[in-house]
Amino acid sequence: MSREYVKAAAAACLIMSAMIAGTVSFGFFMDPVTADLGFDRSMFSLYFSLITIVGTITLPVYGRLIERFGTRPFVIGGGLWTGAAMAALSLCHSLPAFYLVGCLIGLGFFGCSYAAVPVIVSSWFEEKNGFVMGLAAACGGVVAMVLSLVFPSFIISFGWEAGYLLLGAVVCVLTTPVGLLLLRSQPSDVGLAPYGASNGGSAQKAAELPGVTYRQALRTPQLWATTATFLLLAATVMITQHLAAYFVGAGFDPVQAGVFMSVISAGIIVTNVAAGIVSDKLGLMRAFLVCSALYLASFVLLPATGSVLVICVALVLMSLGNANTTLFAPMVTQGIFGLRDYASIWGLVSMACVLGQAIGAPLWGLAYDLTGGYEVGMYASAALVAIAFLVLAWAHRTSATRRAMGASMGPAPAMQAAEAEQDGASPEPSAA
After folding, report:
1. Are residues 129 and 271 both part of a single domain?
2. Which residue range forms the structural domain that includes residue 123?
3. pLDDT for residue 422 is more than 70
4. What is the DSSP secondary structure assignment for residue 328, as one 8-state letter?
5. What CATH number did the domain enclosing 59 receive?
6. Are residue 172 and residue 25 in the same domain, yes or no?
7. Cβ(332)–Cβ(222) under 8 Å?
8. Which of 40, 221, 321, 401 is the most buried (most CB within 10 A)?
9. Is residue 251 located within the same domain as residue 355?
10. H or E segment and range at residue 187
11. Could you give the CA distance from residue 257 to residue 236 in angstroms, rounded to a whole number?
12. What is the CA 269 to chain-centroid distance, rounded?
């Protein structure tokens, strides 16, 4: 593997770390800001909801723009914008100011991170795709663990205003210099093909890549089945926001609950890399089947045991849920729809993942309020994971069959002909 591929992989890892750093660090400011400024927690936390809402809306737009202009300008410009906006939170002393800056963060944050990383990996790696995606997610987990140790003491020592300045600097350093020094949007920009490309030549033109266009994908049931399924899977992952309360309610003290949470954090680092390696070895859907079965088992084991050892095993298995949105969601999207308009289609699917995370935490809270515990929600999540695999297996099988039938005539010729007929034009002849 040449230096250029290593640089692209390193760029993906660092940009993913910026995304994780940004999302996990906001929780450290809840107590100091609300205590200092006298805000209600519910009202203050709305600014993070606004970040998510604005980011969710912009993800499909970023997908289309990245398709046209490449990832590099958005990583560079988005990193500067997001870092400056996060640092600007240090100047906020009223709720409207936090809300306004939250919207500004949402405009840039997901475009330079969540939308960009899967496109970078898919563009640069035909082989080792799963390993690099898993490695990027694992690096983000390591950064999250480090920041969990650094930020609380830093805020205590220097104040929450300095904490927001540090957060902005961290996000900016992990994006903008990376985009400038390590990243090129496509391997063809430096005269290379994707790593492991079978033709050994330069990258293909978009029209020659396998797969369907964005407009064609919008007309398929596979796209809507994929977006709905990953939205619900992302919602199941948000049980992590409630696990500490679950353990305390189950009779463990807060210190023990904290240890359990560190187990799942460490599990995310290990299982993302392992899932990526398994995906490269066994194939995408076989790996997804294995990981789905283990993730399902965690929702059955956890409410059924009081053993510390079994709880730790269940939490490690539950950490595989993180791989659904960080690893399998972009890879399954590519497997179903191909590379032709991947960035645009991933922008839509990633919007569903983020939306699922946004609604997941309150849904788990609602499950507790309605049933008096989290157990019913866990068993329901186990059933949902099984259904999700079946739906995505159907989408992957039917899409792969369609592309295989049209392989000799170019990408998805049947859909191209149907689209051209609906648009009142003759289908373009396929390339020889």
Report:
1. no
2. 1-181
3. no
4. I
5. 1.20.1250.20
6. yes
7. no
8. 321
9. yes
10. none
11. 20
12. 14
How many domains would you assign to the chain? 2
CA dihedral over 334, 336, 340, 345, signed as positive or negative: negative
Asked whether residue 5 is domain-assigned, the answer is yes
C-alpha distances out from residue 8 to 14, 72, 290, 374, Å: 10, 11, 29, 42
Please report whether residue 429 resides in a domain. no
In a domain, 98, yes or no: yes
Query: Are 375 and 246 in the same domain?
Result: yes
In this structure, are 59 and 152 located in the same domain?
yes
On whether the CB atoms of residues 350 and 330 are closer than 8 A, the answer is yes
Cα 162 to chain centroid distance, Å, stands at 28
DSSP 306: -
Task: Give just the sign of the alpha carbon dihedral 286, 287, 288, 291.
Answer: positive
Q: How many residues does the chain have?
A: 432
Instruction: Write the pLDDT tens digit of every residue in 218-248.
Output: 999 999 999 999 999 999 988 887 887 888 8
- Local confidence band at 199 (pLDDT 50, 70, 90 cut-offs): low
Largest CA distance in the chain: 69
Q: Please state whether the predicted TM-score (pTM) of the whole model is above 0.70.
A: yes
CA 425 to chain centre: 38
Percent of the chain past pLDDT 70, that is, above it, reads 89
Residue 367 CA, chain-centre distance (Å), reads 24
DSSP labels for 61-123?
A: HHHHHHHHH-SHHHHHHHHHHHHHHHHHGGG--SHHHHHHHHHHHHHHHTTTTTTHHHHHHHH
- Cβ atoms of 53 and 357 within 8 Å: the answer is no
Q: Are 92 and 98 in contact (CB under 8 A)?
A: yes
Helix, strand, or coil here: 313? helix
Distance (Å, whole) CA 314 – CA 378: 12
Please give the mean pLDDT across all residues of the chain.
83
What are the tokens at 390?
């079946």
Judge if 177 and 256 occupy the same domain.
no
**Contact present, 384 and 236 (Cβ < 8 Å):** yes
pLDDT at 378: 94
**Would residue 420 count as lying in a domain?**
no
132-136, 199-203, 268-272: least confidently modelled range: 199-203
Same domain, 130 and 30: yes
CB neighbour list of residue 391: distance below 8 Å, 6 or more residues apart = 225, 229
Distance between CA atoms of residues 390 and 184, nearest Å: 37
Pick from 118-122, 188-192, 199-203, 216-220: least confident: 199-203
Question: What whole-number distance in Å separates Cα of residue 229 and Cα of residue 386?
Answer: 11
Q: Which residue has the tokens 């100091």?
A: 32
> Is there a single domain that holds both residue 172 and residue 215?
no
3-state secondary structure of 169: helix
